[in-house]
Design a protein that fits this description.
The chain is α/β, with parallel strands linked by helices. The protein has helices at 12-23, 65-80, 98-111, 137-143, 152-166, 208-221, 226-240, 251-264; strands spanning 7-8, 32-33, 41-47, 50-57, 86-89, 115-118, 132-133, 170-174, 180-186, 189-195.
Length: 265
């Protein structure tokens, strides 16, 4: 069962979030509420199936230290309760900063639980020694302070450089309609495999990256190796981008799309 550890305010948006999580079967007991924090909200304006604009309600100022410590304890409690994998989703909203990133990743390493990271560019190099990072192409180049370059050779070099620089076990670079490339550390060398996209029709890419990292982590927690997990995550993303809005993929949808592909493979 998934569990969410996050910082929320004591406001209507937090109540709405708890209700949504409960309806979806997501454990919300690790949410940390702080009266001085405003729950983050994103509102997308859609016109004729196209996103026109998005406006955000973000927290004011820095995250209170006491709240960060409570969130750290929530992570420890989740691990003690038997969590099989941890996802750090960095949206640059002030919770995942260098100090908390260092503590959170150290806690996970000590527990032996795999850590998957969707990194923010400015924190890219802070995520040392994690199991797998899942940036898109722009984030991967920008995170290393490099201009974006086209072509497989540039992507290959970039992936290997990131693995070596961060000491990560793996790196999955998502590339939109071009699929994704998985890099894995194997002793002193780094292997790579490209996975073509499985999307048939693309209506909305909102949440595609979140789908990839979620299914990737879940698959590894269930016993898949990283290559198998990346293949499954790729199928899941192909389903989600065929839906409008922030969507999810169900187990039955995932099974069906994989069966359909096997028929034509």
């Amino acid at each position: 069962r998934p569990a969410l550890a996050a910082l929320v305010g004591e406001d209507a948006a937090a109540g709405e979030l708890r209700a949504i999580l409960a309806a979806q079967g997501v454990q919300a007991s690790f949410l940390v509420a702080d009266p001085d924090f405003r729950t983050i909200e994103k509102t997308r304006v859609i016109a004729e199936h196209q996103q026109v604009v998005r406006y955000d309600k973000d927290p004011d100022g820095n995250i209170p230290r006491a709240a960060a410590l409570r969130l750290e304890q929530a992570l420890k409690d989740e691990l003690a309760a038997g969590a099989k994998a941890v996802i750090l989703s960095d949206y640059g909203k002030g919770i995942l900063v260098p100090a908390t990133i260092k503590r959170f990743t150290a806690i996970c390493r000590k527990s032996g639980v795999p850590v998957f990271v969707d990194p923010k560019v400015e924190h890219f190099r802070q995520y040392k020694g994690v199991t797998c990072l899942t940036p898109n192409t722009l984030e991967a180049f920008s995170g290393m302070g490099l201009p974006v370059k086209d072509g497989p050779e540039a992507a290959e070099k970039l992936g290997r450089d990131i693995i070596r620089a961060l000491g990560a076990r793996a790196l999955l670079i998502t590339q939109g309609e071009n699929g994704m490339t998985l890099f894995e550390k194997r002793g002193a060398s780094v292997s790579s495999v490209h996975i073509p996209t499985r999307a048939r029709e693309v209506y909305d890419v909102t949440g595609a990256g979140d789908t990839v990292i979620s299914v990737l982590a879940l698959s590894v927690a269930a016993g898949a190796d990283l290559h198998e997990a990346a293949l499954i995550a790729n199928f899941a993303a192909g389903v989600v981008v065929g839906k409008l809005g922030t969507a999810v993929v169900t187990p039955s949808e995932l099974k069906e799309t994989m069966k359909e592909w096997l028929k034509t493979a």
